[in-house]
Amino acid sequence: MFYSLILLASFAIAQEAPPFSLHFDEEAFAEAFTGDVFVAFSDSGQPMDSMHRWFGAPPLLRFRVEGVEPGQSVRLDFEDAHAHSPEDWSQVSGKSWRMQAVARVNRTARRAGTGPGDVFGALVSAEYSGTETIELELNQVVEEAPFKETERIRLFSFESPALSKFHGFPYTMKAGVMLPLDYEPDTSYPVVYSVTGFGGDHQGIHGWTRRVPSGSPLENCIIVVPDASNRYGHSVFCDSDSIGPWGQALVYEMIPELERTFGGAGREHRYVTGVSSGGWSSLWLQVAYPDEFAGCWSHVPDPIDFFDFQQINMYGPLPDGSPRNMYTDEEGNPRPLARRGDEVMLTYEDFVRREHVTNPGGQIRSFEGTFSPLGADGTPQRVFDVRTGEIDHEAAKAWKKFDISHILLTRWDELKPALEGKIHVYAGEVDTFYLEGAVERFQGLAQKAGLLEDMVVEVVPGMAHALHAKGNQHMIDTIEQRWKALNASE
User: Fold this and answer.
1) Model confidence pLDDT, tens digit, residues 101-156
2) Domain annotation covers residue 353
3) Is 275 within 8 Å of 200 (Cβ atoms)?
């Protein structure tokens, strides 16, 4: 009886979900296309512009097509979708929507519909009901977003040998560079590498024109915003078994070439900072390459201790031996992912189910993309079941080599000579994404082990997910003092 009800419900949805016909334009596709295509919905604006929203995202369908020739059309029914959001598709049927098709062609871009070479079509407004086919075109090619250079803002592009070898095609890294106010090509300068949070890229360098007030010591520095984004999300500049040797590519390939080009003063005056995923990246770069940076200032980093991964112990099961769950806590309550004060804005399950549709470049999948080895299907191994939320604790153990807390607590005697005084970590007491727990756990263990004599680890009262102003000023003061000391000794 129950199974019959499921069949009847599925049949009802199918009857209310009209088929699509997607036409693959001859001018837009140079060869047969195999990959993901999306049908994005919206009630205003262009659907593809809102398909990647984290909050209040409109409906979306993801399909997989094989070998579609240029000029060919394919019929896609609701039942063909590999994933859809919302889960209850009956909420979508029977309403008027704007709809738009998007094909993911680009091999490196994080978001479908934004990578150069991706293909989309004009939006179609129609009633989404009945059995009449909705015709959608794929005939417009996404062009690369222009980068505006100025007298001080420059684009640096670099083809990485390491990433090119890993991926099997030429892989270009990019960085936005802001030169010192009175830049002289034959002079050397301190260099500050600022890694953006999730969703940012090298275009973020333009924001530094507002972040550096007149008279700031940063006006005498080279500021670099490297692009950490990739197909799976944010590389966090670690050497990953799944997405490639991003740390090696940045530190040993791109940085030397960039600093030769613009006049970096060397690793004794090379600093790294960042917020959120960039906060994790900056701390990782300092710890993984302790001699290559003179200090890091990490703000509200992604989880630095996987015993508290946004309130989840990734390593160990529940006391009764059963697996923990990404979607529900120990009492079976929905697990929150984002908050504003005391108000829960988003649950883990809702967030993951949505990003499973946009696949793969979402925040949670990005963690697996960077920390997990490749699975049997050639994609980063999942550490939890997307359908149920159940964690695979054995799979999660592969993440331990990226557990910064574990590395510092177990290897401090070895790392201390190169890291003493270089680490500064700032968490918000009420972090929007519940990231403070990992820092608090590390802080407590580091205190007991005596590590806090050699580093700064603070949980800032009342602060949410933000750059810590005092910590940022400490970085600026440190850079200025060291540069003055160098010049005074010459």
Assistant:
1) 999 999 999 999 999 999 999 999 999 998 999 999 999 999 999 999 999 999 99
2) no
3) no
